[in-house]
Amino acid sequence: MRAATVSSFGGPEAVDVVELPVPEPGPGQARVKVAAAALNPVDAAMRAGAFGGDGEWIGLGWDVAGTVDAVGDGAEALWSAGDRVIGLATGHHRPLGTHAEYAVLDAEALAPAPTELDDVQAATLPLNTLSALQALGLLGLRAGQSLLVTGAAGGVGTHTVELARLHGLRVTALASPGDEEFLASRGADRFLPRTSAPEPAAFDGVLDAAVLGDDALAAVADDGAYVGVWPGQEPGAERGIRVAALDVRADGAQLNELARLADQGVLLPRVARTYPLGEAAAAHAHLAAPGVRGRLVLVP
After folding, report:
1. What is the mean pLDDT of the chain?
2. Which residues contact 259 (CB under 8 A, 6 or more apart)?
3. What's the count of helices (H) and strands (E) in the chain, helices before strands?
4. Where are the alpha helices (DSSP H) in the chain?
5. Contact in structure between 135 and 246 (CB atoms under 8 Å)
6. Three-point CA angle 200, 203, 206, nearest 5°
């Protein structure tokens, strides 16, 4: 089978599509015949060596949509061959990711695919929706409180706006001026252009998807909450603010609920373009270009 991998760090040209044996599921695992797999900034970071692993063979891809092909011992009660699923494969130093013709995931990391979405649309959901949901859990805000989302037009940012609105928060979205109408349609109560500094100490919580750091922390009220999306890059705590960094985890039960919300139209999948798996390097180059809205999706 073919799989997108990195054996030496670098730019998009470092991505190699190679032939590998079809993986076998171990105990508690399921093998998925991949129909579509989204490309995310974390894949570019892995390719560039942001998480280390010098000299290792690294498989790319976290998101997946496809069909269960085989199950390991102990997974038979959860999945059967032919089940249509989505899932998230986490980790920065895996020999095989989801940018492949087949992928092996923990059976409990999978969820039934949304019935109203095709595989390309469904593949955009796992990493970004789970990140948004788990970030809101870390913030711990109550209905009626105020939330600022930086980078609100990105994958994690948009889904955070959607879920925050569903949870009764008052949402302010910070993004490029051209994104104002779109974010209002997804549930933002207010909009701030990214060229404007947020009001100081004005929000009960901030989800800093744009990685603004100290500038975003300054917008949090005393004793509020700040959550960043890149562990190790969050600012230091001050003024009683709780500071946390999201380390997204695979969770099939959460993903099942998120798939249901996608079927209801609460969560909107955004696809910018699809690429054949063999053109993974070109997809990485596209991801690096400014102004990409929606996910790039690889199709084996």
Report:
1. 96
2. 86, 111, 112, 113, 114, 122, 125
3. 8, 16
4. 41-48, 119-122, 126-139, 155-166, 180-185, 214-217, 252-263, 280-287
5. yes
6. 100
Note whether 291 and 214 are same-domain residues: no
Radius of gyration, alpha carbons of the chain: 19
Q: Report pTM.
A: 0.97
pLDDT score at 60: 97
Residue 181, token pair as written in the block: 């109408």
In whole angstroms, give the CA distance from residue 8 to residue 76. 38
Report residue 173 as tokens. Answer: 């979205």
Task: Please name the residue that has the structure tokens 């609100």.
Answer: 152
Strand ranges for 27-90 from DSSP E = 29-39, 58-59, 63-71, 84-88
Distance (Å, whole) CA 240 – CA 196: 25
Q: What single letter denotes the amino acid at residue 47?
A: R
Q: Phi/psi class of residue 188: alpha, beta or left (left: φ > 0; alpha: ψ in -120 to 50)?
A: beta
Same domain, 142 and 172: yes
Say whether 16 sits in a helix, a strand or coil.
Answer: strand
**Is 117 found in the same domain as 33?**
yes
Domain count, the chain: 2
Residues 88 and 153: their CA atoms lie apart, in Å, by 22
Which pLDDT tens digit goes with each residue over 251-280?
Answer: 999 999 999 999 999 999 999 999 999 999
